[in-house]
Amino acid sequence: MAMLRVFIRRARMSRHPLHLPAGLPADDEVLLDAPDEPLAPALVAAGRGDHGPASALLAATRKAADWEDRDRYVTRLAAFARARHEWLARWCAAAPDDPDALLVRAELALLHAWESPARAELLHRAAPLIAAATGGDPLDPVPWRVALDQARGTGAGHRVFERLWGEAVRRSPHHYGCHVAALHYLSSAWHGSHRECFDFAETAAQDTPHGSLMQALPLRAAFAYLTDGGGAVVGRDRLDAAADRAIALSSRHPAADPRPAEVRNLLAYVLAALERREDALTQLRLIGPYVTSFPWDRAGDDPLGGFLELRDRIGREVTSAWRLPPTGPPRPRFERTGRMRSGGY
Question: Of 86, 249, 313, 315, which residue is most buried, by most CB within 10 angstroms?
């Protein structure tokens, strides 16, 4: 698995040795965006130009209707294809109507568009690819998440968005990725408000099992509020309730598990912004070595460095029993660069 070094980036910075609280891995053991066990062989094979394992992996998620893993794997495979696309080109040439290849290609088109100064134009150009993906498998909600993200970026009106949303929830009423796409559309940074964002997130979370990723939707709304820097004030009780709901979700998963890693990273970020240091330290222990780019990439170009710096600060403050009482609506200590993006956007 030596080729995994291509996909896993370790901390590469000069750092002063620090006595970390018990249960936290050393800096050189922390991984950024480490793939889980099913995804790793597909990425290694893709690096060699072989699309077979990626095709088999996505076909298995579609057959099992495992939409959460499918969405996560599509996002990671498209991100890899952004730098090395030959394997995807071969896949599309060999099986032009393969719904899995069509979906990765549509996601890749979105990635390219969101990173370009000509974003709106490129998102419009991606419409035929996204339409092909939505027609690939009539039961798959993930292409509709892609369509929802595209609609947000092109400034589609509420009527268009509601039509796409209806298609998504008809296929999977509780698909986390589609709900995150809707949440961002409703955020104050795009086409809604903080109040709409929280109302949507809390209502959706109430209707799902306690172990579902949907329980993290209010946390997403809290993150959007804390990093927006404007708009109507959201009460501290609502922010704490969102964090508490996500803490309960995190507790239902094993420690150092890569699958809930993004939720735990987001939760640590929000808890730190709320000055809930001991709770943040608990999540840092549960994260273990599995750091995700989101949300740390929202504070700068070095997400791993940002994570380690916050971890050091939280560790120092908890072990020294330093406390600062919150005053008024909490604001994070992280600088915000640019508009909020959804997931990798």
Answer: 249
Q: How far apart are CA 79 and CA 188, in angstroms?
A: 27
Question: Is 210 a domain residue?
Answer: yes
What confidence score (pLDDT) does residue 18 get?
56
Classified as helix, coil or strand, 23 is coil
Does residue 338 form part of some domain? yes
Distance in angstroms (rounded) separating the CA atoms of residues 119 and 338: 14
Rounded Cα distance, 3 and 271, in Å = 35
C-alpha dihedral (17, 22, 23, 25), degrees to nearest 10: 10
Classify the C-alpha dihedral 341-8-316-277 as positive or negative: positive
Residue 69, classed as helix, strand or coil, is helix
Phi, psi (degrees; rounded to nearest 5) at 231: 90, 180
Q: Is residue 277 part of a domain?
A: yes
Cβ atoms of 32 and 8 closer than 8 Å: yes
pTM: 0.88
Looking at the structure of the chain, the number of domains it has is 1
Instruction: Give residue 121's pLDDT.
Output: 96
